[in-house]
Write a structure and sequence with these properties.
Elements lengths: L7 H5 L5 H9 L2 H15 L14 H21 L4 H11 L4 H16 L2 H12 L5 E4 L15 E5 L4 E5 L7 E2 L10 E10 L2 E11 L12 E5 L15 E5 L2 E4 L8 E3 L5 E3 L9 H31 L18 H36 L6 H29 L11 H8 L9 H17 L17 H6 L13 H24 L4 H7 L1 H25 L7 H19 L1 H6 L5 H18 L3 H6 L5 H4 L10 H9 L13 H17 L1
Parallel strand pairs: 1-5, 2-5
Antiparallel strand pairs: 2-3, 3-9, 4-8, 5-6, 7-8, 10-11
The chain binds ligand 3VV and flavin-adenine dinucleotide.
Length: about 675
């Protein structure tokens, strides 16, 4: 018997080859096959069930996380999964855990900042999980300002050791994931002090707990920082606090690729730039951009499928009501988010390439592209996570009341997702880094130094400052060169206007502080340009499959034109387009929504999410929403009894009092 599919009709409407689109989304046929296999593996394993986790107490949730992590590790070993497959498996388990930090930050920190001897000593143990590590940088008093950290690591030449110490309450490490209850080791960031001199913040490998009894080592105070936002969600993670009371570690546990301390206590700065100490953050920021596309796709998949099932108003002659996805307002809220999911996917792919390229250069001691890599990872991390966090909430609203039910999957997705706007760098702080980079690039324009990479367009500032958009009809907005030039002209004009305003201040730092809200907008304009241009570049590639490229062109245009519509003020104020051209863009946008509509369900099917991973009744593949909602309601523990606990103590007396009052 064929399975029931409420979306069958929608799926028939699609005008493109879904299998080929799945491959585009996954990045390659190989990625698609791997990820499909691993997702099914997780979905079919009862240990990885997650439908009840918002009901668990913190302790039970945490134990459940340990159980899942242990089971995941067993599967990884038994099935001899590659590192790539293992990462996929952990991400499909979809429960934040200490392993994210062990694999995602502790190991990369040692790899990026350790010497080859340190690699040889620590990495094999870490790869086998004989030690488990976390990334302990943030303190109670300082997170964004890394140079303001207070923990000290003072070299003692007598014993050839560092003395790790937390001199104040505010120097307590605070937030590191995996630290609270699990990690045996940490990469700790502390001020290096030799011969009474402060050499700034460096990384140190520190053992925190005994490998036999898991008890904190002498001088170490460690624990969990407490409940976080939402139920379930990020509370599966043991974000921790940590204090050192003169804890001793051998000299060779300072990560010494960037700087070294000799046996005599001499501080040696190598040719490697000091910023490489921040390298792990650059790596993770890059992964966060791809993760943003996954989270956004997930929310959009739920909202799109449900919008096709949900009907309100407009029944004619007793026929069905209108599917809410057919309302233009619904489309204008939903389809730009769908387009953004694809846009972030492609920019994430490109950023991965950029990161690999910069890593290879660093290995060959070429540091020239580091500032660009920092600006791109910081800016795109910030832009994509802010959009995604807001989009998840928008998708909840797009699902009406049922979106507020926990089993829509959206509340938990929101609660898990929103800290990405803060961790790995507060989004505003990171955009200001991008703005600094842009202002520096502008200031060098006259010096003959040609901007390269993502700022190459600034080399054409002369043209972009005076060009006029040539759009006369709505369809003129479909020309890639027209779109690109509008975004480039807006970004360059905003940058140069800000640079000019900065020039009016006698002290540039005062100017930067005063103009920071404008500088943030400049950085956003630049990041949006990067995303638009990388989407357009993707379309230059040979993309097989009937109708696939055509759909991507439509989505690319939706992405660019919805931004143009949203930021029309910027575009018009900088004079690169006229208000009338803005209105034409909006007209075109409406036409594009009509083209997305028949393909909407297939475009979210292309994400290839299992029902397990989606974790949403509203987004389930077969669209059998109402029956599932009804069945699920009865599973709530409140419905275990007909009369609730507390009736006798608290309800009945009130009700009876009412009767008594009535009798009076
Ligand atoms: C499931 C499977 C797993 C597999 C893998 C998955 C991976 C996922 C992993 C895990 C999941 C996630 C779980 C949660 C994780 C959360 C973790 C954390 O949150 S860890 C803490 C983060 N903390 C921050 O990010 C602080 C932010 N602050 C900073 O980065 C800095 O303090 C900053 C940039 C704001 C200022 O730093 P200044 O004070 O040293 O810098 P200035 O003076 O402004 O700049 C000096 C120069 O250095 C450059 N610079 C700054 N940062 C740079 C960098 N990172 N790289 C290169 N250059 C940099 C600047 O551009 C500037 O350059 P010029 O001198 O102008 O040319
Ligand atoms: C869930 C979660 C997991 C985390 N995991 C880890 C981890 O594993 N390891 C770790 O070391 N840390 C971790 N962190 C800490 C995280 O990296 C920091 O919280 C983050 O870097 C932000 O720093 P902050 O908390 O000091 O924010 P603050 O800097 O105090 O930000 C507060 C406000 O001040 C503004 N602000 C700050 N500086 C400026 C400025 N210069 N100009 C303008 N505005 C400014 C910000 O925009 C923000 O609005 C985690 C945090 C969370 C929430």
């Amino acid at each position: 018997m064929e399975a029931l599919d409420y979306h069958a009709e929608e799926r028939r409407k699609a005008e493109f080859n879904l299998d080929e689109m799945k491959i585009v989304w996954a990045g390659s046929r190989r990625n698609y096959e791997l990820s499909d296999r691993v997702a099914r593996l997780v979905a079919s394993d009862p240990v990885f069930r997650k439908d009840n986790r918002t009901m668990l107490t913190r302790k039970d949730l945490f134990k459940d996380t340990l159980r899942k992590a242990a089971h995941a590790w067993k599967r990884i070993i038994d099935l001899r999964l590659s590192e790539e497959e293992a990462n996929m498996l952990r991400s499909y388990v979809d429960q934040p855990a200490f392993t994210d930090l062990h694999w995602g930050m502790f190991i990369p920190a040692i790899k990026g900042q350790g010497t080859s001897e340190q690699h040889e000593k620590w990495l094999p143990m870490a790869y086998k999980m004989q030690i488990i590590g976390c990334y302990a940088q943030t303190e109670l008093g300082h997170g964004s300002n890394v140079q303001g950290l207070e923990t000290t690591a003072t070299f003692d030449p007598q014993t050839d050791e560092f003395d790790l110490h937390s001199p104040t309450l505010t120097s307590s490490k605070w937030w590191p994931g995996g630290l609270g209850k699990v990690s045996t080791h940490a990469v700790v960031y502390a001020r290096l002090i030799t011969g009474g001199q402060d050499h700034g913040v460096h990384g140190f490998i520190v053992q925190l707990r005994g490998l036999d009894d898991h008890l904190p080592l002498p001088g170490i105070t460690v624990g969990d920082i407490g409940m976080k936002f939402g139920s379930g969600a990020y509370n599966s993670m043991d974000n921790g606090l940590l204090r050192f009371d003169h804890v001793r570690i051998p000299r060779n546990q300072m990560l010494m690729r960037v700087s070294q301390v000799t046996r005599e206590g001499k501080f040696v700065q190598s040719d490697v730039p000091r910023q490489l100490v921040y390298g792990t953050m650059v790596y993770v920021r890059q992964t966060i951009v791809s993760d943003a596309s996954c989270a956004l796709a997930r929310a959009v998949c739920i909202a799109t499928r449900y919008s096709a099932v949900r009907r309100q108003f407009g029944s004619q002659n007793g026929g069905p009501e209108i599917q809410v996805i057919d309302y233009k307002t619904q489309q204008s809220r939903l389809f730009p988010l769908l387009a953004s999911a694809y846009a972030f996917r492609f920019v994430g792919e490109w950023l991965k390439w950029l990161y690999t390229d910069v890593t290879q250069r660093l290995q060959a001691n070429d540091f020239s592209t580091l500032p660009e890599a920092h600006a791109c990872t910081a800016g795109l991390k910030s832009m994509t996570t802010s959009v995604t966090a807001d989009a998840i909430e928008e998708c909840r609203k797009l699902c009406g009341g049922h979106g507020y039910l926990s089993n829509s999957g959206l509340p938990e997705l929101f609660a898990v997702y929103i800290p990405t706007c803060t961790y790995e760098g507060d989004n505003v702080v990171l955009l200001l880094q991008v703005a600094r980079f842009l202002m520096k690039t502008v200031s060098q324009l006259g010096s003959g130094k040609k901007p390269v990479g993502t700022t190459a367009y600034m080399g054409r500032a002369e043209h972009l400052m005076q060009c006029r958009c040539e759009v006369e009809m709505a369809q003129d907005w479909l020309k890639p060169s027209t779109i690109l030039e509008a975004f480039e002209a807006r970004a360059v004009r905003m940058s140069i206007a800000c640079a000019k305003s900065l020039g009016k201040f006698s002290n540039p730092e005062d100017g930067f502080a005063e103009l920071s809200p404008d500088l943030v907008e400049v950085a956003i304009a630049h990041c949006q340009l990067i995303v638009v241009s990388k989407f357009l570049e993707k379309l230059q590639q040979d993309i097989p499959g009937k109708g696939v490229k055509r759909q991507l062109e439509i989505l690319c245009n939706v992405y660019a034109l919805h931004l143009l519509h949203k930021h029309l003020g910027d575009f018009v104020a900088t004079g690169c387009i006229t208000p009338n051209q803005g209105a034409l863009a909006n007209e075109q946008l409406r036409l594009l929504y009509a083209q997305v509509r028949p393909n909407a369900i297939a475009l979210v099917d292309a994400f290839n999410y299992t029902d397990h991973y989606l974790g949403s009744i509203l987004g389930c593949y077969d669209g059998n929403v109402y029956q599932k909602l009804y069945q699920e309601a009865w599973k709530d523990p409140l419905n275990d009894t007909v009369v609730p606990d507390g009736y006798l103590e608290y309800l009945r007396p009130i009700l009876k009092q009412h009767i008594r009052t009535a009798r009076l």
